[in-house]
Amino acid sequence: YDGVGVGQKGAMCVERGNKVGVQRSIRDKIKFYLLIISSFFVVYAEYTSANKCKQSFILLNHWWF
Known about the structure:
This protein is mainly alpha-helical. The chain has one domain. Helices cover 91% and strands 0% of the residues. The chain is built from 2 helices and no strands. The protein has helices at residues 3-46, 50-64. The termini are far apart. The mean pLDDT is 73. The chain crosses the membrane at residues 32-50. Keywords: Membrane, Transmembrane, Transmembrane helix.
């Protein structure tokens, strides 16, 4: 191998890795936002009765932490 060829191959690999990484992080963000939105809707739906609301918050805390 000559050094230039190896360097170019390395750069291409890094570039491809970055593209995959960006796609993955976008997908993770979408999942994260969907999770927040869905949990918000759950809390909002349960909000009509105070006891259920309290329960859902306890459940959410168990789920998150």
